[in-house]
UniProtKB/TrEMBL annotation, chain A:
<keyword id="KW-0413">Isomerase</keyword>
<keyword id="KW-0846">Cobalamin</keyword>
<protein>
    <submittedName>
        <fullName>Methylaspartate mutase</fullName>
    </submittedName>
</protein>
<keyword id="KW-0170">Cobalt</keyword>
<dbReference type="InterPro" id="IPR016176">
    <property type="entry name" value="Cbl-dep_enz_cat"/>
</dbReference>
<dbReference type="Pfam" id="PF06368">
    <property type="entry name" value="Met_asp_mut_E"/>
</dbReference>
<dbReference type="InterPro" id="IPR006396">
    <property type="entry name" value="Glu_mut_E"/>
</dbReference>
Length: 427, 119
């Protein structure tokens, strides 16, 4: 297969003034996956195809995935290890080419088997990271995830030549999807990008997930671009924005408006790629049609927006992220080692993350002006430390923060809820 | 879920996310409890729930413990009645969806379990 470098494709789109748009699509059946990729390719937008893997494959439960395939149970993604390589080869034939790169998205803290399979198939564009695919998702110790991700970088680098130039995107700009202040998201994303670079990758993207305040997001994306330029010399890199990753609006109108905001934000702040969410996000796995609708909606909105060279007001996101990155790098020349030490010392500390390797001292809240702020910076090495003096965040406040976007965007009359209640007694 | 149940005045032992079957069975059979609650949102609940509840019911100590499941059970939105029925047949005492109504019903269900236990 002749496949151009992923980075080249993105750079060409940027030069042509087009935002690259990508779904989060993944289905268990190879036929449906192929139809979905073909529909993404045909959509009127500059697209990248996505194969999102299912939860069993993420957790290494390939037997469970195989059983689901034989019994016909539906999966929440494509089981790339359980399907034999030939099936996936045929699924992709004639679909991926110079005009249509395909990325595999997974979510596994220990993805060696996944990467081996990807490289066999010439699928050398993927995403994740030793921190971002460990802490929010799994019960795996960070040390193990870090070792595994180093081996995975090796597997990818050794596959150079079998497909497009190996590319990894950090998931560090998302973490739990919600309530993490942008300075820490930016720092985590940059550090994971540096980890990939130190382990031999030459093509990298840095992620950031849309939060609630447009101004805060613009500032964060600009900070991410500045830090990328500074800390990723000599490699090809770009910035990718994820449409809102928290509790999603339930109405069609609300979901559309939130996605439109993401597309415009991406263009204004100079991101090159956008990963969309669909109107079905709050309820279930979206259909192919819903994915295409979201892609085309985002592309139309993006086309109506321009990059804003103006400086967003500086509230200190760049300084905060830079201070964290530098303090972490000082801990060890090996970035994997530095990441591990940083979590042990609380230099990196993700609010509300329950993983045993997370210090859990830092806490945050969503302010009334929609900006994410620190309640307590714990041991984070930030220029402006804060101590929480008030009482801890109660359940009601926490839920208010988590649900604010949904409620705001769903202000119009609620559509009838899809779910109905069944409660039957066994005896 | 933990917050909700705690706020309704009950004690919760939370086994965390993506609990392996063995660990779940050991935890449930090892220390008595009045109710076992499974929360699932990733769309694999129909399959995983059925397998998990069969494992739990195989333990003599858990034959009569109420076991319930709720959340986003499948990948296609609202579950069909036959899907709910197969979870009940596999051994669940009750099955809830992901709607506010389900949460409210679950609240009254908790009360009924508590009333039975304290009698
Ligand atoms: C944030 C989020 C994530 C974060 C999670 C971070 C974290 N650790 O918290 C990240 C990014 C890591 C993530 C990952 C994945 N996610 Co996700 N995620 C979401 C999202 C956007 C919000 C979830 C949330 O915060 N809910 C808040 C709580 C309060 O709500 P809740 O969990 O739904 O619970 C309510 C009800 O379901 C119900 N309920 C739940 N349990 C129980 C139990 C009982 C007894 C009762 C009565 C009621 C009940 O009551 C709760 C309160 O109302 C939802 C979509 C949405 N809802 O907007 C998708 C969603 C849940 N994710 C989904 C999927 C598929 C995944 C992935 C498998 C990735 C993939 N293939 O796309 C992985 C999961 C990996 C794994 N191990 O399985 C799907 C599930 C699809 C389905 N069921 O059909 C959703 C619906 C998105 C979608 N439309 O595709 N996700």
């Amino acid at each position: 297969m002749s496949a151009p470098a992923f980075g080249r494709y993105i750079a060409d789109a940027r030069a042509a003034g087009r935002l690259v748009v990508q779904p989060r699509m993944g289905f268990g059946s190879a036929t449906r996956m192929r139809t979905g990729l073909a529909a993404t390719k045909r959509a009127s937008a500059t697209t990248v195809g996505t194969i999102t893997l299912d939860s069993y494959t993420r957790l290494g439960a390939h037997d469970a995935a195989r059983r689901a395939l034989t019994s016909g149970a539906e999966l929440n993604g494509y089981p790339i290890v359980a399907h034999d390589a030939g099936t996936t080869e045929a699924m992709l034939a004639g679909i991926r080419d110079e005009t249509f790169p395909v990325q595999v998205r997974h979510g596994s803290p220990t993805p060696e088997l996944i990467f081996q399979r990807l490289c066999e198939l010439g699928l050398t564009v993927s995403e994740g990271g030793p921190v971002s695919y460990c802490l929010p998702y799994s019960r795996v110790p960070l040390a193990e995830s870090r070792r595994s991700w180093r081996r995975c970088c090796e597997i990818l680098v050794n596959a150079r030549g079998s497909g497009p130039e190996p590319h990894l995107e950090t998931f560090g700009g998302c973490m739990l999807g919600q309530l993490c202040p942008p300075g820490l998201l930016v720092a985590t994303s940059v550090l994971e990008g540096m980890f990939f670079r130190q382990n031999g990758l030459r093509s990298i993207s840095l992620s950031y997930a849309q939060q609630i305040s447009r101004a805060q997001d613009e500032e964060a994306l600009r900070a991410l671009r500045r830090l990328g330029a500074r800390f990723l010399p000599g490699v090809d890199w770009h910035v990718v924005l994820y449409a809102y990753m928290g509790l999603y609006p339930r109405t069609r109108a609300g979901a559309d408006a939130l996605l439109a905001g993401a597309a415009r934000l991406a263009v204004r702040a100079g991101a090159d790629r956008l990963i969309v969410k669909t109107a079905a996000e709050s309820a279930r796995i979206p259909t192919i049609k819903e994915n295409v609708t979201a892609i085309e909606h985002a592309a139309r909105e993006a086309a109506g927006e321009r990059e804003d060279p103006g400086q967003a007001a500086d509230t200190g996101i760049h300084a905060e992220a830079l201070a964290i990155v530098e303090a972490v790098l000082d801990l060890d020349d090996d970035i994997g080692g530095a990441l591990e030490k940083a979590f042990r010392r609380g230099y990196l500390d993700i609010p509300y993350c329950l993983h045993p390797d997370n210090a859990g001292r830092a806490t945050s809240y969503l302010d009334t002006d929609d900006r994410l702020r620190w309640r307590d910076t714990g041991r984070l090495p930030v220029p402006e430390p804060r101590r929480d003096t008030g009482r801890p965040l109660g359940a009601a406040e926490l839920l208010e923060c988590l649900g604010r976007v949904r409620r705001r965007f769903d202000h119009e009359p609620m559509e009838a809820p899809e779910a109905r209640t069944r409660w039957e007694a066994r005896r | 879920m933990q917050l909700l149940i705690t706020e309704l005045g009950h004690e919760v032992r939370n086994l965390g996310p993506c609990v392996p079957d063995e660990q779940m069975v050991r935890a449930a059979a090892g220390a008595p409890c009045d109710l076992i609650v499974m929360s699932t949102v990733n769309g694999h609940g129909l399959v995983d729930g059925e397998r998990a509840v069969r494992r739990l019911r195989a333990e003599p100590a858990l034959r009569d413990t109420p076991i319930v499941i709720g959340g986003k059970l499948g990948v296609a939105g609202t579950s069909r009645p036959e899907e709910v029925q197969s979870l009940l047949d596999a051994g669940f005492t009750a099955v809830f969806g992901d709607d506010e109504v389900d949460t409210a019903l679950f609240g009254s269900y908790l009360d009924s379990v508590a009333a039975r236990v304290s009698r």
